[in-house]
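Database export, one record per block. Field names are fixed; values are copied verbatim from the stored entry.
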Amino acid sequence: MHFTYPVDEYRKQLEAYNELESISFKPEDDRAFIIGKLEERSEKKRVISDIANTMIREYVETFERHPERMNEETANALEEFENMLFPQDKRVGEVSVTDYGIYYRVAKILAAYYRKIGAISQYAMALNCCSLGHMMLINGHSYHWQLSPYHEEVLSLAKRIHDEPLSDDARQKVLINLVRSSFSIGREFDVEELETVSKILEENFHQPPMDFEMKILESFYDTVIQMFREYCFFAIEDGREIEKEKVGPLIKKTCNFLMNLENSMAQSMDAANVMMSKYFLGLVSLEEVLDHLCQWQEEAEQAENSFRKIQGLATFSGYYLKLLHHCSTLPQEKIVQLSQQKIHEVLPKLVNVSRLANNVQFNRYIVEFLDAASLTGSFDEFAPIILESTVYADKPLFIHTVMVREMSKVIFDYLLEKNPSFFDGVAGKDASYIKNHKEEMRTLLADCCMYHDIGKFFMLDVVENSMRHLTEDEFALIQEHPTNFDYVFKGSDRRDERLNCIRDCALGHHRWHDGSRGYPEVTLTKNRPFVDILAVIDSLDAATDYLGRPYYDGKTLEELVGEFQRRSGTQYGPEVVEALADPQIRQKLQYWITEGRKEIYYQIYAFNEIRSLN
């Protein structure tokens, strides 16, 4: 079969795209130079996107739609494509540039083909790649932990490992895959399933285990203790009892194994999980655990590696806050006092360290700390770190929120003057209050805009930095981002009408005005006017961003307004669409999608901040 580009071309384009994403400028570079380079970058992105999508059509979509075209030659080509995306001699985390979405799709094609023709060793290897792709793409970017769709296949293959003509490499991959898929069993902590996995592993190891077998065992027990930790926290939050008698033997065995290792993969992390596990089993006191967490946090802050520093700082302090909030018998006032001390100690350090490292794992640690901090801290207290970190983690996302903010204020000002009753009930205020407190409500709308996409925080590499069309798996991930607001700020006070308004905008900006389509399914509230404004402006900015997105379609504002009008009352709120008919409003919006956009891009890329726009 003929392919337009050789396999290696995809990696070349991927690396070129990521290099374009990391563009930076010198203090002496003026506005015209910066804007010119950004426009040049945008054009290069479109060229790269065309090449990438051509390769995906030929190497991937062809065989997804026509699996009968697979043969030995094309399977070899796809294996080469797969290895190019994630070299087999690399460990997870060592590959700086890869594409998990396409890697996962290719692995699924190969697994189906090798299963069909009965090539068991090749099938085992492809199945390993499927589980890796699922772990890195789905569970690596989602709050909603999913059982690997390959777990039963992996378990079945592992159980009959002695009866299948597997190569030595395939046997090793089956056992590694068994550990990996076990991590997706879930937060309910299925002891019987994990003990089955443990038995299979031990039965298939040499005595004593070889080095690679010890690494597999270490990875398995590390997985077990992490899952137990999450199970305990979820049980406590839900008011359920931890089944100590049922889980105790496996956890004690796990603790003994990890603490006897001479060179653990992450000694302090393992030690923390072991100590928390012993606490949950009633073997050590809470005070002892909290003291050790503080010590490990201090040690992490001295780490030279910025990733290890942020991991330890956020993780150990996060565990401290969760245990203090959920488990301490101290008076509530004392718990709040100690929590506030920890939050105020850690937040400035996180802001400082955030400038040293940014990737999906780093973002997750930030979010996990904020999740714990929200149990006793206020939204206003810690939410700004999300915005500050977003500037450094992903400039296009931050720019998008600023663009939405500025254009939404244009619509708000117009509607407040023409139809103030439209806003009646927003944030629990009546129309009269809103009209007399314009700046207060304008500020609230600005916050709604700045936080509406906060759920994308640790799926940035999927959402914003993709050089090609999204896969179905990735689009499913993106559909989670509105509801992720509740995970990031789940401890916030639901009696706060201002916060509820921000939350409603995050939840509802992709739901159609009439509730018939879009995502997620949410109940309409009196904050709908702000949601309606956001929905229109969010779509408008996405369709007109010619400096950041590779899929700009070149539609004029007039064409887009026509589309909004055709969908008025269904997808979009009629009052907001009606505002677009005013020539002065269109003139102001036209400024923002052209010169205003250039100014925002300039300020972010030149100064990493927005200085003055009005």
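Remark 1: The domain at 394-607 is CATH 1.10.3210.10 (Hypothetical protein af1432).
Remark 2: The radius of gyration is 26 Å.
End of record.
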